[in-house]
Amino acid sequence: MASIHADQGRDSRFNSFNLNLGGSLVRTDLVTDLNAEGAEAAYYGLFFLQGRQHVDNHTLVNHNAPRTFSNESYKGILDDRSHGVFNGKVYVKKDAQQIEAYQNNANLLLSDRAEIDTKPELVIYADDVKCSHGATTGQLDEDAVYALRTRGIDAAMARGLLTLAFAGEVMEQVKLSEIAERVERAVAGRLPERFNLADLVETAEAVQEA
Fold first, then answer.
1. How far is CA 59 from CA 26, 93, 137, 176, in A?
2. Structural domain spans, the chain
3. DSSP, res 53
4. What's the pLDDT tens digit per position in 118-148?
């Protein structure tokens, strides 16, 4: 269980990285107050769940001042009978004009029994703002799996690589190689030495976009 609260002053920058590889019961509450002009907050989250693991992510960004900025991107990967929750809220006060706030939650279900509850919210009391939010939930593209298999990659590896490509938007923001490698192994498994992970992920992304 974790609770993080950031109070931001003028022209401050706060970046949050929440990488979660599951647990019996996990909950993280993340709150940011943008209290002065020029304050910026960015949230990046990735949760990968298996078995009967349960993870709750609750986020709140309070735009308390004008000309503040926030961007939030959370991705969930759920397998077996795991259960994930994303509840994100962006609150814009009446006098917080000329702000920008973006929020997105995308989820990948690897099992028919996995569940995700997602609720992105915008509460806006100002009229001169740029705000958007959204949520998507889907499964792996079997055509993309087949395309990778034609390149000599077995089915399990192909699914792992496509899953890792899905997580790529968040993982690109992680600057610590040791952390990135641990997440990559958890999601895609340990690759045979003859494979180059970066090249394979790039191939998987290209296949998905085709």
1. 14, 17, 19, 23
2. 1-139, 140-210
3. -
4. 999 999 999 999 999 999 999 988 888 888 7
